[in-house]
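Good morning C.,

I know you're traveling, so I'll keep this short. The sequence:
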Amino acid sequence: MISPDVLKSAAAVIPSAKGTLPPISATISTISSQAHLQMISHWHDELEFIYILDGKMDFHIPASSPDAPRLGELLREINRINEKHLPGFELESIGLLHLLLARLYALFPPENKIQEEIPGTDIGAQRRMVAYISDHYPEKISLAGIAAAGSVSRSKCCQLFKKYMQQSPIDFLNRYRLEISRNLLDSTENSILEIANACGFSSQSYYTKMFSEKFNYTPTQYRSRLS
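The tokens, ready to paste straight into the viewer:
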């Protein structure tokens, strides 16, 4: 993943359109802390760049291109520029990011995305259901609610999650909530109960049980590892 210093510097140089949140953000995550050594399947309206700082990670992406090595080299160059911290490194990083975006745009023309988003298609329904979970995870969510977001039946909803996510809708919801809670444990001083409530868990005991099953640590034990 691109070093957060580069992205925070770039965000400072280019303010967001609304003048509030920065257009670029970064996080560092450790695969060994993920359940089953896998990152949760998800979609973004934004572009996500992943740079492996150490070790190895396998990606399953339904596309390939001879340009892939050049894209990886651009990410490595951005990281090298940040490490050197020479004068003007923020602007050079931004320039390389623009080049990276241009090459990605050429690989995935807009018409291909439009084709995926046609109402009534399975991929369109799946995206809407995942977006619904992303927007409403702090609330009480039912299988019927997830299915309604995709305008499909409950059985079709389960079939689509099995096809695209290799898990049930409720399993995906719980794992999504757990990932959000883990980030809150990392980045806030909120109590375990506050985090459980913020992530949609019905009780602290149920949250602790689910967290322990996924990460082999209780939330308290996980947080103590950071201190």
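Safe travels,
E.
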